[in-house]
Amino acid sequence: MKPRLTHLALHVRDFEACVAFYREYCDMRVVHERPGHELGERIVWMSEPGREKEFVFVLLPGGPGRERAEGDVSHLGFAVGSRAEVDAKAEQGRAGGCLLLSPIDEGYPVGYFCCLEDPDGNIVEFSYGQPLGPGAEEHDADTIG
């Protein structure tokens, strides 16, 4: 079997706030939880409903927090079903004080997107119209690369 990406694990500074963020903004849920190595510590696996056996996001306590350098656009990307859903995520982020970038249309293959910032300082992008999610069918003849 060829290697396949199954999970991403991040150490985070404010563990409970990050779990809450990914539940509230990314519609993820905890699918596995276990104790960590330190007393009272826990580790969670989060996933989108229905994708629990495809890909999980592991949150581990004890991270230093994310300090992004100038121009660092490292991010986690989530596809949504429409431009209106991108707008709704932006409004939700604005109300929650975590909107980093208002919706913008960069054309194909970047699409229409906005960015929020999680409690640890990671950028979380919500997009529509990329070749990896809803809206891709509008560009069936186009290829990535």
Automatic annotation (TrEMBL):
Residues 4-129 form the VOC domain. It comes from the Bacteria. One of its GO terms (biological process) is response to cadmium ion. This is VOC family protein.
